[in-house]
Structure formats: C-alpha cells, structure tokens
Prior knowledge:
Layout: H1 18-50, H2 55-58, H3 65-95, H4 102-118, H5 125-137, H6 140-168, H7 178-200, H8 216-230, H9 232-259, H10 266-279, H11 291-300, H12 307-325, H13 328-342
Helix pairs in contact: 3-4, 3-6, 3-9, 3-12, 4-5, 4-13, 5-6, 6-7, 6-8, 6-9, 6-10, 7-10, 9-10, 10-11, 11-12
Amino acid sequence: MRGGSPTPGSRPAAAVPDGAAAGAAVPARRARLMLVLRTVISAALLAVLVTRIDLAHALPRQRHLSTIGWFAAALATATLGIGLSAWRWQRVLAVFGVRAPLGTLWGHYLAGQFVGNVLPSTIGGDVVRVSRAAGGTTNAETAFASVALERLSGFVALPLLTAAGFAFGPDLLGVPHAWAAVMIASTTLGVLAGILFLTGHPRLAGRFRHRPGWVRFLGAVHEGVDAMRRDPRGALGVLGTACVYQVSTVTTVWFVIRTLELSLPVTAVIAFVPAVAMAQVLPISVSGLGVREGMLLLLFGPLGVSAGQAVALGLLWYCVMLLVSVPGAPALAVGHRARHRATNGTGVAAAPGPVGPGRR
Length: 360
C-alpha cells in the first residue's frame, strides 16, 4: 500500500548493502572460473588420449545380444548402487538419531545424481542432498554432517577393496604401474585418517559445536564422528553398507568391461577400479572426464588394454552413470516444487525441529 507501513517480515532495500551483493558475487565468479578450468583440463586430457586411439579396435567386434545383456546388467547394477548409497546415508543419519525413510533419501540421492552427472555445474549433487535433507528430514547442520560422513565412509571401503584385490591376486604387484593403485589407496587412507582425527578431536572441530556461523557445520561433523566412536555397532553398519555399495560399483564396471569384450582378471578389476574411482574425484576435471580414462590406461594398459579401449571403457562407465541419473530429473523438479510450497513463495523455509533420538 503506497505510503503505508512495511508489511511484516519485509526489509527495507537499504538493509542489504550494495557491498554485500558484490561480495556474494565473488564466490560465484570464482566457482564459474573453476568450472571453466576443469572443463579445459578434461578436454585436454581426453584430446591427448584420443590422439592415441583406434576406434576400430576399441568397440566390441561381435555386437551380438550378449553385448546388450552385459550393458543392461551394468545399468541395473548402477541403479541398485544408487539405492545402496541411499541406504548408506540412512545408516549415517541413524547414528545422529534421525530416522529417515529410505524412499525419501533415494529421491534426494537421485536428484543429487542428476545435478552432479547430467548437469555438471558449480553446484554439486551433494549440495542438493544437503538442502533437501535440511528442508524436511533434519536440520542443516546434521544434513551437512551426514552427507560428509557418508562420503568419507566410501573412502574407507575403496582402499579396502584395492587391498582385497592384491590379497587375492598377489602377482598384480609385479604389474607395471600397479604401484599407482597402492599409492592412491595409501594416500587416501592417510588423508582420511587425518580428517577423522581433526574432526573427531574435541579441541579442534569439537570446539565449534553450537557456535554461530558456518563453523557450526564442522561442529556437527565432530558430533557425528563422536557418535560413531561411542556406537561401534552403528559405525560398523555404516562401513558395511559402504563396502556393499563399492562392491556394486566394481561390479558395474566389470559388466562394462564385458560389454566391450575385454579380457581382464577379476582380481585386477577389484584392485584397480577402486583406485580409478578414488582418483577421478579429484576436483581437477568435470565428472572425472580425462582423469578416469587416463588412469584406466595406466593401470590396465600393461594387461593388454589399448588406449582406445581405455577411453571407451571410461566413457561407457560415465555413460552408464549418466543414464541411471536421468530419473533424478523428476525427483529434482518435485522436490523443488515441494520446497517452494513449504516456503509459501517467500523463499524462507521454516526451521526444522530439533534433532535427537526422539525425532522420527
């Protein structure tokens, strides 16, 4: 109403300084720049590999029904893997005392997969999961901590699988470049141990509990690590679901290998694929493109895989993940509409209730 009092909850335009808007634009520009750099790196790595490939020998020669069957099996296993990821997330939330329906978490995970794989951007799929969980499943701090710990649990399982591959196939240690898989697994465990020490120490991350600002999220991660320390059964449940999920990932890649009619020892797949999965998450490329294919050539090349076959394997692996992520589009759209309704169009969501053993 002209000349009247401001409506309740409204803020004068002067309440938001111009400098604040300019400051908020700086991280956005930096994120866009990083996306451009990662795209350039992926394109450069793929260009180097493509100059060495012979497509005529990279694709399956027979192209019979079994090829389609292997590819369908890869799609089915990758789809199952998304459900297993949601199950792993559910086990982590249970450590925080939050009981979340598996179907709801599966929808959140699908939406995150769609954003992360189909729509590579400066907003990762994990950010979508945190925002969705914070909008209804739990509060923002616990949502962030649960996603962080769920991711970290996977980096415990992957080195264990690499170790299992070498244990069942000790001859692999003599394969050229096998040291790279050992180094990646060892480095990952070392970094993970450091992260868990920092986040679990009461005088480090623990001192940020109940603090205002973004540091409260570090305090929430500390509470999760501390809860796992006090609940070994819950921690083993998280690790067990993480191992089951990573086994499904290795199985998916095995089906992709069979699709391309490559002949590789099962022990090599168990030892090397987790190392590739660990390397491709480095934030230097878009969705691991270029890094994944280069690592596949490095590790499987001495076993007879050509550059063209390594590129085909990496791209087909990525294609499988793209295809199983497409169903996340409806989950993303439905979740967006539900969130909009929850805010009544104001853009401000109601704060979730407290989190604890009594929350359902």
